[in-house]
């Protein structure tokens, strides 16, 4: 459901980039030299979109993870599935944090799991952006 509802922003970004690339001089030169639409798409447009696709995918995964965890924490997920949000829900509904002394170690593993996986996908997205975006490359 999250992927089904989350594709629209991704499609808008890709569409705007394709419309921008379509007006660039190298695409106009390919049209003037007689290249067909398929060749222009495969040789000029697609290579410029692939990097954007990878970066956008890597940066949107943490949002999906947090959305799933939030829905599971609210009790809106399948109770037979195990997830970090479901673990938070069980801790909250059992009152483990209300007891004295509070059992904080029930919250620590799912919290660290969500934080570390989200951070790793964000760092992968930034690394891919540095690799694929020539404007971000620094002289060495």
Describe this protein's structure.
It is a single chain. With 140 residues, the protein is mostly helical. The chain has one domain (2-136). It has helices at residues 2-22, 25-32, 37-73, 84-94, 108-132.
Low-confidence stretches: none
Overall helicity:
over 70%
Distance between the termini: 45 Å
In total, the number of strands is: 0
Overall pLDDT score: 88
Number of domains: 1
What profile does the largest beta sheet have?
none
Q: Mind telling me the C-alpha Rg?
A: 22 Å
Number of helices: 5
Question: How much strand content do the residues show?
Answer: under 5%
- The SS-based structural class is mainly alpha
Shape assignment: elongated
Structure summary:
Helix content is 73%, strand content 0%. With 140 residues, it is an all-alpha fold. The protein has one domain.
Question: How are the elements arranged and paired?
Answer:
Layout: H1 2-22, H2 25-32, H3 37-73, H4 84-94, H5 108-132
Helix pairs in contact: 1-3, 2-3, 3-4, 3-5, 4-5
